[in-house]
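User: Please fill in residues for this 328-position structure.
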């Protein structure tokens, strides 16, 4: 257990950061980590069905990424839409911020946008003259570490094949490995959590007890809670696909799950004890990120960092478009 940011850092060669997806979604590699024995297997994502029994259940996040990155007509000012308040009003990140003071108006997305106010966290509340045309003018909000602009390939690949509920500004990346055909052969259900601005923001406090988590909105439907409860009653394991799914389920009270719509700011890190999930499928996360801390809570910090060192040695591909890890 550690509450020091420095204890969640690791060295990663730049060449291992994947800025393009695998040729096919299911072509990714999969490091399998047994948290009880510490054993590591090097497998392919297509091997995933072999780790599930008929009683087990995958739970996936069906949030859909919106083409939320906009530029003004000069191409010099960037607006990243974060959360829709109504058809014309959004909260957003802007760059450069010094130009976007209250009252400033820019032409973008087939309309104009006016800054109404600067919020405490530096984001802006923006009002459009008419609903912005995101499909025509917006681009996919791919991570900055890709070091490139989004293109047409990202429209398809920075989105899960089962995405249905619009609202995320980053993909729930563990789900990017699934093809429709593979998912159709596995028992599964869905939650919805809209991935927000916090996914772009690094932890800045060395003392993790001082870190403030971002709020993300979720829906846990009645049908989902019923299927999860039935799986558990049959002795099945709950496999969370991604840290976003884990955050939805672990935000619920102990005991039998009940339907819920709300938001969560849960910060999962060691020595957290998971209440609702048994296994986790997840990508490899950035050094010092809250996501790395979450997987450390599941398998132990030292074991996770040891597995990451093995992944580096074996030249796995890291981050959003990279390979994945199955924690059993």
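Assistant: Residues filled in for all 328 positions:
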């Amino acid at each position: 257990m550690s509450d020091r940011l420095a204890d969640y850092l690791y060295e990663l060669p730049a060449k291992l950061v994947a800025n393009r997806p695998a040729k096919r979604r299911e072509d990714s590699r999969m490091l399998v980590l047994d948290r009880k024995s510490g054993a590591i297997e090097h497998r392919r994502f297509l091997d995933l069905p072999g780790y599930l029994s008929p009683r087990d259940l995958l739970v996936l996040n069906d949030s859909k990424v919106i083409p939320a990155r906009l530029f003004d007509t000069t191409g010099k000012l960037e607006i990243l839409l974060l959360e829709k308040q109504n058809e014309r009003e959004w909260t957003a990140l802007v760059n450069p911020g010094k130009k976007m003071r209250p009252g400033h108006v820019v032409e973008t997305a087939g309309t104009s946008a006016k800054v109404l106010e600067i919020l405490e966290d530096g984001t802006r509340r923006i009002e459009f003259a008419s609903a912005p045309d995101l499909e025509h003018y917006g681009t996919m909000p791919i991570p900055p570490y890709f070091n490139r602009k989004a293109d047409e390939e990202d429209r398809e690949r920075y989105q899960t094949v089962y995405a249905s509920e619009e609202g995320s500004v980053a993909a729930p990346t563990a789900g990017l490995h699934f093809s429709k055909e593979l998912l159709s052969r596995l028992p599964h259900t869905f939650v919805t959590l809209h991935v927000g601005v916090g996914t772009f923001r690094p932890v800045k406090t060395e003392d993790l007890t001082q870190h403030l988590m971002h709020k993300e909105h979720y829906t846990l439907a009645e049908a989902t809670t019923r299927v999860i409860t039935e799986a558990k009653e049959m002795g099945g394991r709950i496999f969370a696909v991604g840290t976003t799914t884990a955050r939805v389920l672990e935000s619920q009270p102990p005991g039998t799950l009940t339907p819920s719509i709300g938001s969560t700011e849960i910060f999962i890190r060691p020595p957290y004890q998971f209440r609702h999930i048994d296994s986790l499928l997840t990508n490899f996360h950035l050094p010092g990120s809250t996501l790395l801390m979450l997987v450390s809570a599941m398998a132990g910090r030292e074991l996770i960092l040891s597995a990451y060192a093995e992944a580096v040695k074996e030249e796995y591909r890291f981050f959003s478009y990279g390979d994945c890890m199955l924690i059993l």
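For context: Residues 25 and 179 are 6 Å apart (CA to CA).
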